[in-house]
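Assess the record.
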Amino acid sequence: MLPLFVAIPLAAAFIISLIGKRYQRAGDVLANLSSLVLLALSFFAFLSLNSHSSNILVYKVGGWIPPIGICMVLDGLTSFMLITINLVSCLVTIYSISYMEKYTSKYRFYSLFMLMLAGMNGVIITGDMFNLFVFLEIASIASYALVAFGTESDELEASFKYAIMGSVASSFILLGIALLYSYTSSLNMADISAVLAVKGDSNIVGFISVLFLMGFGLKAAIMPFHAWLPDAHPSAPAPISAMLSGIFIKTLGIYALLRIFFNVLGVSSTLLFLLIILGIISMSAGAFLAVGQRDIKRMLAYSSISQIGYIIFAVGIGTPLAIFGGLFHLINHAIFKSLLFLNSGAIEYSTKTRDLDQMGGLGKHLPLTGYTSLVGSTSISGIPPLSGFWSKLIIIVAAIQAKYVGFAVIAVLISILTLAYYLKLQRKAFFGELNKRWEKIKEVPLSMRLSMVILSVLCIIAGLILIPGLRGFIQQAVDVILVGKQYAGIVLGAVQ
C-alpha cells in the first residue's frame, strides 16, 4: 500500500489539471475523494503495522533490495505522521470547496494542493535520502505557487521571499546529502546508519549535521531561521495557511530532523542542548512578536513559531516522556492551528478584512466561527481539559524531571502569554459591540463550518489519546525515535 500514498495524490493532480477547466466540479470531487482515501489508507496502515510482529514494513521499489534499490518504510513514526497529515488535509479540502470559489482557476489550486500532499507523504514514507530531497522539493515548489495563488502584490512578494529562503534551505540539505554520500557511498538511510556505525563519526559528519540543522531548521521555521514564515502564512489562502502551519513545517522540518538525527546520524548531548536553546528562543520570541500583531493571520503565524519551539524544546530534552510530549504537541498543534487558520479564513470570507482593529462583535453573526475559534484559542493556550493542556503539561513535567527547571518555568510563562494574546484575539474579533459595517454578514457555507466543527471536536477529545488503550498511537512513534541508530538493523532485517 505504501506507494499509494504518493501515487494517489499525483494521479489526482494530473487528472484535475487535464479535465478541471472543462468540468468545474472535477477538482472538488477528485481532491476530496483522494484525500478521504488517503486518510482511510493511513488508518489501515496503522492497523496493518500493529498486526505485524516486527512493527515495521518495508516496500522494495521495483523489487530491488536496498542499499542498491530504493525502499519505502512504514514504522510507528511513519504511521503517526501519515495520519496527522492526511487527517488535516482531508478537512482542509472539504473547507476549500466553498472558500476557493472566490478565486479563479480553482482546479489549479487543487492540482497544486495534491502535488504538495504527494510530496509530504513521500517525505514521510521514503527510506532514501535523495528521494527525501526530491519529495521535499515537490512539496516546496507546490507551496511556493500556492502562497502566491491570489496573485496580489503582497502575495507575490511573500511567495518570492519564501521561495528564496526555501531554495537556500534546499541547498543546505542537498549539500549535506552529497557529502554524506561521498563519506558512506550510500543513499539508503538504514545503510548510511550502518556504515557510520562501522566507520565512526568524523568532522565531516559534524559539518553535515550543521547543514541539516540549518536546512531543515529553515523548513521548520525555528528561530533564527523563521524569516519567511510571517509573510508566507498570512498571504496564502486560508486552506494553505492551515496546511503550511498545521503540517507542512512539521513534515519537512521536524519529522526530517527527528528521522535523520535520531535514526541515521545519531544525536549527541551537544546537539540536544542546542535544540533546547533553539526551542526556548523560538517559543519566547514567537510569543512576544505575536502580542503586537493586528493582522489575525500574522498573529497566528508568529504563534506557530512559538508552538514549534515547544516541540523542539521537548525533542532536545530527549527523554522518553519529553519526546512523547513533543509528538503529542505536534499532532495537537496540527489540529488547533489548522482550526484557527480556518477560523481566520471564515472571518476574512465574511468581512473581507484581517485587521483585528476593524472587527468587534462578530460572534453575533458568526456564532459557530466564534465558538470554534474559542475552542482553538483555549486549547493552544493550554487551558484544561483541552488537548493543548495535556501535551504542554507533559513537556513541562519532563523538563522538571530532566533538571531543566528554569526552562520549564519559561515554558509556563510563555503559555500564559499565549493565553493573553489569544484572549485579545477573541475580545477584538468576537466580543464587544458589533461594528456597523458587519450588520449584514452571515455565517460561512456548510463545508467550511463542517471542517471547523470537526477540528474543534478533536481539540476537545484529543486528550483521550493518553488513555492506555490509545496511547500506543504516539508511543510507537516514540519507540522508533528512541531506538536511535538500531533503526538500521531493524530496517535491513525487515528487507531480508
